[in-house]
Structures are given as structure tokens and as C-alpha cells.
Amino acid sequence: MQRRPISCFNILAMLACIALGICLSWLAWPIEIKVDKDVGQFWPAWAQAIGSLLGIGIAMYIPWRQRQQQLSDARASSEREQQRERASVLTMQAALFQPIEGFRAHCAILPKWIDAPLAERQQIPVSSFDRAPEFDQFRPTLHLMGALGIRVSMLIALQDLLRGMLPTLHTLPDIDGPYRERVLAKLSDGERMAAEIRDELQDRVEQGRRALDHAAT
């Protein structure tokens, strides 16, 4: 068990209590003690010494107590700020879940259209890889999610790349050769990344909700 350090205030308070206890005990002692009349001249000095100790203790206690209150207020403010930040991150994670799942679904479906005739490929919605509003809304705060936020940012960049490739699927008569392999590779990467991020987002949202419920109780 770790011992708590004894502060200077505690030491002075203990000394003041001991001095006060000795003084009170002396005054309440039932036995009459004969002392020389010259001893009486020391009582003012003793009283002054005890008063000085009490004064020092009070003078140290007031700023110490104020400092403790300041630290307590700072801790409470920090805890409230952390609580708001956790709630904000939880809201962001829940909001990103659906657009990331939508991106994954498009990446999973599009390879089936690669080898289709041009007339069929022209039916691919041009908005398939449009950036979701949630991506623009939360992109400045993705860093709050740590490494997961970096992966979401990379996924947004991949979505922009695929959006740039989409017009060629509407115009090229045939998608073949290295370009075909590149498109398929990017779609595969997008589907895999989105599935991993989606699953982690779901886990974090559930954990965050349990933590907030626990904190509320």
C-alpha cells in the first residue's frame, strides 16, 4: 500500500494542536503546582508562540485550500470536456457508419459491370461514388478517432479516385488490359477497407454507448 505524503500544512497543524493541547491541559490540571513568581513572566511568550503557530497554520491553510479548490474545479472542467468529446466522437462514428457501408456496397457491385457491354455500363449511376455529406462534415475532426480516423480519411481519398474513374466506364467501349486490372484492384481495396472500418465503427459505437450509460448511472 502506497503511503500518502505528509504536507507541510499537516505538520504545522499537528504542532499547533499539540501546543494547544499542552496549554489546555495545563489550565485544566487539577493539582495546584507551586512555581516561582518569576515563571509568570514567560506566559506571554508562550501565548505569543502558540498564537504565532496558529497564525502560521491559518495563513498556510487558506491559500492551500484555495489551490485545492482550483485544482478540483479544473479536474471537473476537464472531465466535462472529455465527456463532451467522447459524446462528439460517438456521434461522428455513428454518422459515418451508413455512408461507409454504402461505399462498400458500391465497390462490391461494380466489378460485375466491368465486362458488361457499354450500353449496360452506362446504366451505372453517376452518383455511385459521390462523397457523402458526412465525410465533408466530419473530416476536420477525424483525428479524434486516432488511427481509425486516418483510415477513414484514406477511404475518402480512394472514393475520390474511383469517382474520377467512373466516367470511363460510361464511355470506353471495352474495359480491358492494365486499366481493367487497376479498376478491379481499387474496387477490391475499397470494399475491404470499408468493411474493416464499418466493423470497427460498429464496435466502437456499442462500446461508447455502454460507457456513456455507465457514466450516467
Question: What features would you describe in this structure?
Answer:
This protein has 217 residues and is mainly alpha-helical. The protein has helices at 8-28, 43-109, 111-114, 118-121, 133-138, 147-171, 177-216. It is rod-shaped, with a radius of gyration of 37 Å.
Feature tags:
217 residues, mainly alpha, 2 domains, 7 helices, rod-shaped, disordered N terminus
In short:
Helices cover 77% and strands 0% of the residues.
Please specify the SSE layout and strand pairing.
Layout: H1 8-28, H2 43-109, H3 111-114, H4 118-121, H5 133-138, H6 147-171, H7 177-216
Which secondary-structure class do the elements indicate?
Answer: mainly alpha
Extended strand count: 0
Give the overall shape, derived from the CA principal axes. rod-shaped
- Portion in helices: over 70%
Number of domains: 2
Beta-strand content bin: under 5%
Uncertain parts: 1-6, 28-33
Mean pLDDT: 82
Summarize the main sheet.
none
* Termini separation: 30 Å
Instruction: Quickly count the helices.
Output: 7
Task: Compute the CA-based radius of gyration.
Answer: 37 Å
Helix/strand order, N-terminal first: HHHHHHH
